[in-house]
Amino acid sequence: MCGWRIVVPNTLPTCELSVNTPGVVVDDSLRHFYLRQVTFRSETCAIASIVLNDGNVIPQLGFGVFQVPPDDVSSVVTTALEAGYRSIDTAAIYGNEEGTGRAIRDFGLPRDEVYVTTKLWNSEQGYDSTLRAFDASMDQLGLDYLDLYLIHWPAPKADRYVDTFRAFRVLKAQGRIRSIGVSNFTIPALERVIGETGEVPVVNQIELHPRIAQRELRAFHDKYAIATEAWSPLGQGTLLDNPTIVGIAEEVGCTAAQVIIRWHLQSGIIVIPKSVTPERIASNFDVFGFELIPEHMAAINALDEGARIGPDPATFAAGLEG
Ligand SMILES: NC(=O)c1ccc[n+]([C@@H]2O[C@H](COP(=O)([O-])OP(=O)(O)OC[C@H]3O[C@@H](n4cnc5c(N)ncnc54)[C@H](OP(=O)(O)O)[C@@H]3O)[C@@H](O)[C@H]2O)c1
Q1: Domain 56-301 classification at class level
Q2: Ligand 1 binding pocket mutation candidate from 274, 279, 287 (most atoms within 8 A of CB)
Q3: For helices 187-197 and 161-173, what crossing angle results, to 10°?
Q4: Ligand 1 atom 33: the closest Cα is on which residue?
Q5: Using a 6 Å cutoff on CB, does residue 74 contact ligand 1?
């Protein structure tokens, strides 16, 4: 097992993060960067990052802002940044890009120390409309460039995701986006976008939590070096009273949410839990001082029943009405 140890002088504890998952590395610059967090968060050790197939690096643990009201999002994102998160996931359809961008700018970190993702909504798919929608998102965010742009859903009924991804490639070539990816793409949609554009998305952000582990799709991702990113990683809170998870949490001495987040991290998955509650925002990030043992991982893996909370990506067509 490959592991490394951070020793922080004086009052702070020593902790160890094992880096034993294929595809997961601890990038030197991020290691240095996150080490600085240890100086004010004694429980936090370090955060792993994932190297994407275009060579860029994404923090493995980020923060999602779905359903955070626009008026609240600025203070929620500020709380997340204070807690140590350095990756924020929003979307045009969430209606909170403006407050998200404002919080990131006002927090005052160098731009390259916060990883920002947003998503193109279904109604804007198509080559020209994508270019316009991207400009609108960047105006809302108030940022010079975007780290990751995702096609929010394939919306196969519209049959425009290939042209949409071609527009993404142009924006990337112009330096306006660092990395381009997709969300909710099925294997047939991935095969088509790769086959017709010659470009492999860096990420597929999909519904993934212990009740839907998406094994077949993840195996396809591995074949093409597409990173798997989990949305609704806590099952929107519905998994937090699951007896298996609660039992492990009691054994380990942490919360049910921390157990699930560790399961994602140790499975090599990028994870973006959401909360508007300051204590939860902090504790969901405080997951680098312990490790689940193989028996815990196996017990959580056994909860997979392929049960979605969200819509079926093969048919989801919101935004295309009329
Ligand atoms: N690409 C897509 O189609 C898609 C779809 C859905 C989501 N996403 C992304 O994924 C992110 C996360 O997914 P999600 O927001 O759907 O769900 P989630 O992160 O699985 O769960 C969020 C829910 O869990 C609660 N919660 C969080 N931490 C908790 C804790 N420690 N203890 C108890 N309850 C806790 C939150 O409550 P409070 O907020 O009240 O604290 C909220 O109700 C989104 O914010 C978004 O960025 C993407």
Answers
A1: alpha beta
A2: 274
A3: 50
A4: 237
A5: no
In short, whether 89's Cβ falls inside 6 Å of ligand 1 is yes
Q: What is the pLDDT of residues 257-288, one digit of tens each?
A: 999 999 999 999 999 999 999 999 999 999 99
Cα gap 87→5, rounded to integer Å: 24
In what order do the strands lie in the sheet containing 203-207?
63-64, 87-89, 115-120, 146-151, 177-183, 203-207, 227-231, 270-271
Residue 106: burial class (beta carbons within 10 Å; 0-12, 13-18, 19+): exposed
What are 159's two structure tokens?
Answer: 């049959």
Query: CA 108, CA 115: separation in Å to the nearest integer?
Result: 14
Per the listing, tokens 């020593």 go with: 14
| Residues with Cβ within 8 Å of residue 161, at least 6 apart in sequence | 125, 151, 154, 155, 182, 185, 189, 192, 193
Q: Look at strands 63-64 and 57-59 and give their pairing.
A: unpaired
Q: Model's pTM, two decimal places?
A: 0.89
pLDDT in tens, 116-134: 999 999 999 999 999 999 9
CA distance 71 to 299: 40
* Ligand 1 near 83 CB (within 6 A): no
87 bridge partner residues: 115
Q: Which atom of ligand 1 is nearest to the CA of 277?
A: 41
Listed in sequence order, the residues at least 6 apart from 31 whose beta carbon sits closer than 8 Å to its beta carbon are 46
* Phi/psi at 248 (5° precision): -65, -40
Beta bridge partners of 3: 18
Residue ID of nearest Cα to ligand 1 atom 31: 280
Tokens read off for 119: 């998503």
- Residue 94 appears among annotated catalytic residues: yes
Instruction: Report the share of the chain in percent with pLDDT over 90.
Output: 84
Q: 288 with 271: CB under 8 angstroms?
A: no
The string of pLDDT tens digits covering residues 132-182 is 999 999 999 999 999 999 999 999 999 999 999 999 999 999 999 999 999
Using the atom order of ligand 1, give the atom closest to the CA of residue 119.
1
Q: Are 122 and 317 in contact (CB under 8 A)?
A: yes
